[in-house]
């Protein structure tokens, strides 16, 4: 009898603790107040406005067919609780949303899998929102648009970034096709997260001419994304795609969320000695080198955690980090980057590969590096960093390094 009453009490206690912890000031959950959907001629888009970065998972359920997304650390506005939205297509019957657990919101699209060619789930920033695009086979795409559906703002009509769609096998066919070179080689690198350092109100270092690091980093990251997608067939995702600030701690959350295989943070260097120039690449480690600590302190400036506090954290983290893989990746990128940049700046120096206590590299579950592509504090290199040519060469060098690394996995 004791255990029976305990079973009754436990859920009450659980509810109590949730409501106690969730005072109006300190509720850690993001409130979801809007679900938008629109049926385009050849796909249906569902957008969940969340506003704050949140982890999420998604998957499929059968009999009946469903695609679901669970948003963690989220609460649903009571108005939306248990809502369902009919969709007038052959391949989706309705969309439902509910608070599945006190901290998880679930969105479900009820679908006819035989009529669906593919779907993709990804997120956009500023404000943070989740997007589900569902593509029917051509025959099912002729369904009429749903007049009741809301029209999305222009920002949501852009081509989605992120993972290629989950491609469902053709009825009767076996296995999902994959086009990536890495996939064809069976090497397990599919997704690279590229992190353009700084952004928004945090410009990073500023050159004498006024050139801001955040702008250089983003331009190189976008060029690298294009190369990885178009030439290599990898999925390349950016932690920011415009001039916005993303907290350092969130950048690896994004990489983990995307189940990225590699993480590359792109920066431009600054040194007190303006004559100093060159390329250096870092992996996460403690470092006794004062100049590395100085650089890490500058790159970490957006965080309140001091380098001293980090040392203890780092020593705990490092044993769970892919240090050797990160060092290998850093070496391949460093070598190729120097070679590529030397086409435009023959005197470019390699300052080598080093361990350093960089916050942005903490927490990534994949080989992670930080590249200082050149020095904005050096006027010759600053002049080069202004040019499209040099930025493209930087992207090309990093891309070659990533490819080198992927090939080395095959040999291992
Ligand atoms: Zn930086």
Provide a compact summary of the structure.
31% of the residues lie in helices and 27% in strands.
What do these coordinates show?
With 412 residues, the protein is an alpha/beta fold. It has nine helices and 18 strands. Strands 14-13-15-18-16-17 form a six-stranded mixed beta sheet, sandwiched between helices. A five-stranded antiparallel beta sheet has the order 2-3-11-10-12, with no helix packed on it. Strands 4-5-9-8-7 form a five-stranded antiparallel beta sheet, with no helix packed on it. A hairpin with a 4-residue loop joins strand 2 (34-39) and strand 3. Helix 3 crosses helix 9 and helix 7 (323-341) crosses helix 9. The protein binds zinc ion. Zinc ion (ZN) is lined by residues 197-198, 204, 213, 267, 299.
SSE order and pairing:
Elements: H1 2-21, E1 30-32, E2 34-39, E3 44-51, E4 56-61, E5 66-72, E6 74-76, E7 84-86, E8 92-101, E9 104-111, E10 116-124, E11 128-136, E12 166-167, H2 181-185, E13 191-196, H3 213-232, E14 235-238, H4 248-257, E15 262-269, E16 279-284, H5 290-299, H6 307-318, H7 323-341, E17 350-356, E18 368-375, H8 379-385, H9 388-411
Parallel strand pairs: 1-6, 13-14, 13-15, 15-18, 16-17
Antiparallel strand pairs: 2-3, 3-11, 4-5, 5-9, 7-8, 8-9, 10-11, 10-12, 16-18
The structure holds zinc ion.
Which short descriptors sum up this protein?
412 residues; alpha/beta; 6-stranded mixed sheet; 5-stranded antiparallel sheet; 9 helices; 18 strands; 27% strand; elongated; disordered N terminus; binds zinc ion
> Which band does the percent of strand residues land in?
25-35%
Helical amount:
25-40%
Largest sheet: 6 strands, mixed
Radius of gyration: 24 Å
Low-pLDDT parts are 1-24, 143-164, 168-184
Decide which structural class fits the backbone: alpha/beta
The hetero compounds bound to this protein are: zinc ion
Apparent shape = elongated
Order of helices and strands: HEEEEEEEEEEEEHEHEHEEHHHEEHH
Q: How many DSSP E strands?
A: 18
Determine the N-to-C terminus distance: 60 Å
Strand order of the largest sheet: 14-13-15-18-16-17
Query: Given the structure, what is the number of helices?
Result: 9
Mean pLDDT: 80
